[in-house]
Amino acid sequence: MERFLIATDAWHPQVNGVVRTLSSLSDQLRERGNAVKIVSPQDFRTLPCPTYPEIRLALASADGISRTISEFRPTAIHIATEGPIGLATRRAAIRSGLPFTTSLHTRFPEYLRKRAPVPESLTYGFLRWFHAPASACLVPTESMRRQLLARGFVNLVNWTRGVDRAVFRPTEPILLDLPRPVFLTVSRLAPEKNIEAFLDLDLPGSKLVVGDGPIMRDLVRQYPDVHFAGAQFGDALARYYSSADVFVFPSKTDTFGIVLIEALACGLPIAAFPEPGPNDVVGGTNAGAIDDDLRTACLAALALDRVDALDRSMAYSWDACADIFLDAAAGIASATARGPADIAA
Fold first, then answer.
1. Strands 46-49 and 52-58, how do they pair?
2. What are the domain boundaries of the chain?
3. Which stretch of 156-165, 210-219, 331-340 has the lowest confidence by average pLDDT?
4. What are phi and psi of 289, to 5 degrees?
5. Short-list 238, 242, 260, 263, CA closest to 251
6. What are the distances in angstroms from CA 63 to CA 4, 84, 95, 292?
7. Which has the closest alpha carbon to 252: 143, 117, 168?
8. Helices within 133-191 (DSSP H only)
9. What's the DSSP call for residue 271?
10. Which helix (H) or strand (E) holds 26?
11. DSSP β-bridge partners for residue 157
């Protein structure tokens, strides 16, 4: 049995792709007989994140993380995020000579630039510094790997995502009292998600938005003709996917977009901009339409076969996601499995 310590600043009750990835990964690891310790904001006092108060920033320290490492005795350490917990774990591991892997889940420089006048080059410099000591930095797609290589990142490994097929599958649609066709997006409603690029489109039929977030109230007021269904989960979310005609992904800052493969698994074709997530998930297939003009992509996706969307989703599984993680961790397990005396307090 291996013992995995995963340090993350993103965890429940947050609802996002990072939390979904790490939750699914930890489930897979435990199902295979391993022990998993999640170090998250739940373990610390927290403060609200400036401009994003629903995200809590942990008051984590390297000394505290060192004690956790000493008590848990992991055979591998993975640092999933670059926030306070990630920074404290990185420091604790480096000063104790413990190898670790990392993962890069979000295009944080682009996110930050949407909220503050911080040059992307400066933020990418921080990220490059953060991930440089990692034995492997896991990234969501080949497109992201190439972009990061061009920015000087090293030890990059492609790390796929998966979908829970017991939940996300073609299922009974919701009886929407909306003109067809129905164009659906599922997203956290925040500035960096570029939702307005979808809502501003001149499209036939109806626009449907599933999700919640800090700008939802403003969007409801600005777009009275759009149907907002709020946050939906599990079987209810699968029914929304199954009720629509096209899934629209307007984000230009996501590295992957797990909602893409959830939609595909429900047989819903994709319309998106040519960004890393959509390019790798549906580019060159009949499962989606990609175009710099999102309206063109939406109309093209109407003509696509739902069977092709479902078939494309079969390329993704949480089992494969766990396999890649285990391969990356295998190279450091023996060096990390040390006793408490070896961990700097």
1. antiparallel
2. 3-162+318-342, 182-313
3. 331-340
4. -120, 130
5. 260
6. 19, 13, 11, 48
7. 143
8. 142-150
9. E
10. helix 17-31
11. 138
pLDDT of residue 63: 96
Domain 182-313 in the same topology as domain 3-162+318-342: yes
Which of 4-8, 11-15, 208-212 bottoms out in mean pLDDT, i.e. has the lowest?
11-15
**Identity (one letter) of the amino acid at 1?**
M
CA–CA separation, 156 and 181 (whole Å)? 41
Vertex 241 angle, CA 236 and 244, to 5°: 125
Predicted TM-score (pTM) of the model is 0.89
Q: For residues 81 and 131, what is the distance between their CA atoms, to the nearest angstrom?
A: 10
Query: What are φ and ψ of residue 39, in 5° steps?
Result: -95, 115
Q: Which two tokens stand for residue 142?
A: 């080949």
Cα separation, 162 vs 272, whole angstroms:
19
In angstroms, the CA 45 to CA 59 distance is: 6
CATH number of 182-313: 3.40.50.2000
Structure-block tokens of residue 109? 């420089």
Give the homologous superfamily in CATH for domain 3-162+318-342.
Glycogen Phosphorylase B; (3.40.50.2000)
d(CA 228, CA 184): 10
Q: One-letter amino acid identity for 239?
A: R
Q: Are 298 and 278 in contact (CB under 8 A)?
A: no
Q: What is the mean pLDDT of residues 110-122?
A: 75
Q: Please report which confidence band the pLDDT of residue 114 belongs to, taking 50, 70 and 90 as the band edges.
A: low
Query: Which residue type is seen at 210?
Result: V
Provide the Cα torsion 126, 127, 132, 134; round to 10°: 130
Per-residue confidence (pLDDT) for residue 181, from 0 to 100: 98
For 294-305, letters b (16+ CB in 10 Å) and e give bbebbbbbbebe
